[in-house]
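Quick sanity check, Phage tail protein:
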Amino acid sequence: MKKPESLKALLLASVPGLKDKPENLSMFIDKGRIAARNTGSLSFEYRYTVNVVVQDYAGDVDALFVPLLSWVAERQPDLLERDQQEPFSFESEILDGDLADVSVDLELTERVKVARTDGGLVVTHLDEPSREDEFANADGARFWAAIIDDVTGGTIFLAPDA
């Protein structure tokens, strides 16, 4: 599974406090399933819930949820198209002072293509279908690829895809 790795990398890079204390970020895969059909292909889809836990979080919860939403829009955009308009759920335990433990659940899928070759099998994780981004600017930078530059000042800048 590739999506948890990319989500973890984004959170460690963009959420204040996690870069200096990566041990405060834990991720768990819950309720994992494999979806496949009897079509003569070994291609399949992972379906699972990833539980993201940030312990002893002292920042503004917006600084955690905005990167999460940007990741969802890029990597699992169908979550933004749900009838309930709820791309993920969360819980928080308020601790002493300004600290909290925050737990987020995201229901993810990953399509995997399995193709036969003369040498065996080739397994490819497929990207999500691209969607138009109404916030894209002339340089091709997408709104949802935003990186938080200065959370305390509330500044978000657009970064072109790497």
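Posting the structure with no commentary besides this: Residues 3-157 form one domain.
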